[in-house]
Amino acid sequence: MRQPALPEPCPEWLASLDDAALKRTLLDRVEAAWQLCRKYHPALPRPKVWCDLRGKCAGQAHYGRGGLRFNPVLYRENRHAYLVEVVPHEMAHWLVRHLRDGRRARPHGHEWRTVMERLFGLPPRVTHAFDTRRASPMPYRYHCGCQDHYFTARRHALARRGRRYRCLTCAQTLVYQSFVDPESRYN
Ligand SMILES: [Zn+2]
Ligand SMILES: [Zn+2]
């Protein structure tokens, strides 16, 4: 595996940014990723950028709108990984789509993986790991008075049948909140 082609952002600096500075940093990163792609494909159009994605979707290349969509909440909560992985991930889709025969390439197929590995120097990951609990075998979220707890399917079944679990910190009974989708994929 090669070294990442884009510069490593400083996590402490990222942690200090407000929302406006975060947005500028994202736009700078998109610009840097685009410039890198243009070395390989000089005619690549500059994508527009929107920060309007919600939910578990990290990013999306939207060819109809002519640009890339990003998720401001996942970005704010996972600044470093977001800049390092999501921006190249979506820019790689953008590049592949604009190659000859790009419309026929599979979304995370050979062409996309090649761009991720050879151009960006990154592992071609299809799922993101922003909240590791999403991908864990404990997808059932419970709450007490002080924090979230995550249950396995087995423990969840016992709780549904009436067994009570208490938080060791606040001693409140845990209450079921929701199933956390373990398939948190990129687009
Ligand atoms: Zn608690
Ligand atoms: Zn993708």
What is the secondary structure topology, with strand pairs?
Layout: H1 11-15, H2 19-40, E1 48-50, E2 59-62, E3 67-70, H3 72-77, H4 79-97, H5 110-119, E4 140-143, E5 148-151, H6 153-160, E6 175-179
Parallel strand pairs: 1-3
Antiparallel strand pairs: 2-3, 4-5, 4-6
The chain binds zinc ion (2 copies).
Which descriptors would you attach to this protein?
187 residues; alpha+beta; Zincin-like; 2 domains; 3-stranded mixed sheet; 3-stranded antiparallel sheet; 37% helix; elongated; binds zinc ion; Metallopeptidase; SprT-like_domain
Word description of this protein:
The chain has two domains: about 10-120, Zincin-like; about 130-180, no CATH class. About 35% of the residues lie in helices and about 15% in strands. The chain has helices at about 10-15, 20-40, 70-75, 80-95, 110-120, 155-160, and strands at about 50, 60, 65-70, 140-145, 150, 175-180. The strands form two sheets. The protein has a three-stranded mixed β-sheet with strand order 1-3-2, covered by helices on one side. The radius of gyration is 20 Å and the shape is elongated. The relative contact order is 0.14. Mean pLDDT is about 90; it is low at about 130-135. The structure holds zinc ion (2 copies). The site of one zinc ion (ZN) has 8 residues, from loops. One zinc ion binds near residues 144 and 146.
